[in-house]
Amino acid sequence: MSGKLLVPYVTGGIRPDWTGYVEAYARSGADMIEIGLPFSDPILDGPTIQQASYRALRQGATVRSILDDLTEVDVDVPLIAMTYYNLVMHDPAFCADLAAAGVSGLIVPDVPIDEVDELAASATAAGVDLVLLAAPTTPGPRLAAIARRSRRFVYAVSVMGTTGERDRLADDAVRLARDLRALTDLPVLLGFGISRPAHAVEAAEAADGVVVASALMRMVLDGADPAQVGAVVAEFRAALDGVGVPVPG
Ligand SMILES: O=P(O)(O)OC[C@@H](O)[C@@H](O)c1c[nH]c2ccccc12
């Protein structure tokens, strides 16, 4: 076992039985699970997660309905919510509601670090870890601040642009992960464009693990059931477990 972390994603409310994906991911070796709370204007998302968000919203998914669904889920794996600031900023109870539903982390990618104080305070008060993101163009001093203020892990965004599948890991990704590793003892997880187990292996040379979303959500949009998507999560798990382990013979 390499100890590399695997964080698969699912859009909350994508199907009536969507929590089945959460359970399948947990059984397939996920270390944490990212739950997208769909928002109508997901500016950082590429076509796959956009489509998943719209589909969930059309089916009536709300923050409330998703958190209610999650209270019924019994998994040992930490749940990390991801959403946009719009859904968070008007609701003083947002972080407390997450905690009450068993969610222990939060990613809000459109809050710049200079404006994160209020949200960070309410997350801390609720016992929710606010995960901050860094990008390949983030300047050094800012990178240090992000590394210092992030909780649970630091999210290293592998490319400038939107979420979505890519053919190969960006060169900048490995450099960013290395830079962050030098700044913090928290795990550094790479995300954006990790679409195949081979990408995860490459990413894990420098990072402590990966976030995988679009590659899984494309399957979900195409109708794959929890067991089928869980099988792909298990492939990522097996690939990461092989990192740094000598090949026998
Ligand atoms: O979809 P990808 O390329 O595998 O990347 C993960 C990413 O989608 C997921 O972590 C996430 C979904 N929406 C986001 C918005 C911003 C930052 C991160 C996210």
Automatic annotation (TrEMBL):
Listed under subunit, the entry gives: Tetramer of two alpha and two beta chains.
Pathway listed for it is:
Amino-acid biosynthesis; L-tryptophan biosynthesis; L-tryptophan from chorismate: step 5/5
For this protein, the record's InterPro entries field holds: Aldolase_TIM, RibuloseP-bd_barrel, Trp_synthase_alpha_AS, Trp_synthase_suA
Task: Please name one Pfam family that this protein belongs to.
Answer: Trp_syntA
Its job: The alpha subunit is responsible for the aldol cleavage of indoleglycerol phosphate to indole and glyceraldehyde 3-phosphate.
GO MF assignments: tryptophan synthase activity
Tell me the protein family, please: Belongs to the TrpA family.
What protein name is recorded for this chain? Tryptophan synthase alpha chain
- Catalytic site: E34 (proton acceptor), D45 (proton acceptor)
Which Gene3D superfamilies does the entry mention? Aldolase class I
What reaction does this catalyse?
(1S,2R)-1-C-(indol-3-yl)glycerol 3-phosphate + L-serine = D-glyceraldehyde 3-phosphate + L-tryptophan + H2O
What EC number(s) does the entry state?
A: 4.2.1.20
What's a GO cellular component annotated to this UniProt protein?
A: cytosol
Give the UniProt keywords, A-Z.
Answer: Amino-acid biosynthesis, Aromatic amino acid biosynthesis, Lyase, Tryptophan biosynthesis
CDD domains given in the database record: Tryptophan_synthase_alpha
Under the heading PANTHER family, the entry gives: TRYPTOPHAN SYNTHASE ALPHA CHAIN, CHLOROPLASTIC (PTHR43406:SF1), TRYPTOPHAN SYNTHASE, ALPHA CHAIN (PTHR43406)
